[in-house]
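Recap slide: MFS transporter, sequence and predicted structure.
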Amino acid sequence: MTDVAPRSPDVAEPPTNPRRKVLTASLVGTSIEFYDFYIYATAAVLVFPLLFFPEGDMLAARLQSLATFAIAFVARPIGSWVFGHFGDRIGRKATLVASLLTMGIATVGIGVLPTYAQVGVLAPVLLAVCRFGQGLGLGGEWGGAALLATENAPAGKRGFYGTFPQLGAPIGFFLANGVFLALTQTMSDETFLAWGWRVPFLLSTLLIVVGLWVRLTLHETPAFAKVVASGERVKTPMVEVFRTSWRAVVLGTLIMVATYVLFYLMTVFSLGFGTDPVDGLGYERSQFLVFLMIGVVFFALFTPVSGLLADRFGRKPTLIAVTVAIIAFGVAMGPMMAGGGTVGVMAFLIIGLSLMGLTFGPMAAVLPELFPTNVRYTGASVAYNLAGLLGASFAPYIATWLAGTFGLAWVGGYLVLVSVITLVALLISRETRDDDLDAIPARAR
């Protein structure tokens, strides 16, 4: 199942990328992709229930909007298959460019969609199609960005280098909410709902141009270049990864699932619950966006810290300790958010998003390290995006229903349950800190 080609003994070493360029490209690309992804999440709570669904029960409209939000997580495993195939066949660089373009076209498309008042039921259908396109793009983005950073990392620093694509998540979230906050502060609600909400989606055009320029100047990663030179590329990476590395796919998915649930509880669910004047806390939209942006700063601060810890103490010990802390946080979630006033809400956001940085940071090293080089793009992407499908796609929906039906303590119980699943997966997984990512994969693998 490999492209066999003789390797000349005097084949030149593949060109290397300057470390600063590698870190910049992985950070800028994921920041743009996550910005695109998160402006939808914010709009799904603040805008789409009002503009893309028929008038009526606001809670029902929000749940319908969150259902379209979930579509991207169904698309992401498909994106990991499509882009993973080409990433393991053609290369990391070209595939990352294609994933960025896919995300960008879908995001700009949302910015020009007609509303329900203009075209009726066609509006949410088109919205769902564009959201599917966003999911395809991000499904291929993360694995390539993680490999770009880790396959170019010096010895002993893969965990830290891997945190640079991870920093795209808090940076993208901060930018997305910052743009929405600026718009809501400078225009009336009527103007914002009439056309202002489209601005964050259309701004993505400028960011995509920057991202493409950065990525097109890179060389291929040394690890993949060696696979090409050795003739060890597989013909069907998706088939190969499930044939030879299915256990790594399952473990990687379960290791990541609590991270996804935590993040979307801290952001999408908390924004909806925090600004709901009837069933939630009733904060002003702009006020709660500021709260979230403060919390996301802590997310960003603790992300590189987690990489340093994972390089120093190992992936397993670091993530096991953080997962135990997330379980404790889930137990305290209800009283902290519901009964502590503004201080309690801020403590909830800061602690939760700090834990998010600590658990999310090492994942760009952990998941790629589970797979051999010739299926690494596919394997890491599949595990990452299956975790998104299981852990994130319906997390805001489930949490909103639990909070409205049983109370916030049940939302915390939901987080505890998935964190226990992640903890078990971590306990039975192997330590990967000292694995050699440049090793040419054996045919038996």
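The CA atoms of residues 42 and 268 lie 7 Å apart.
The chain has 20 helices and no strands.
(End of recap.)
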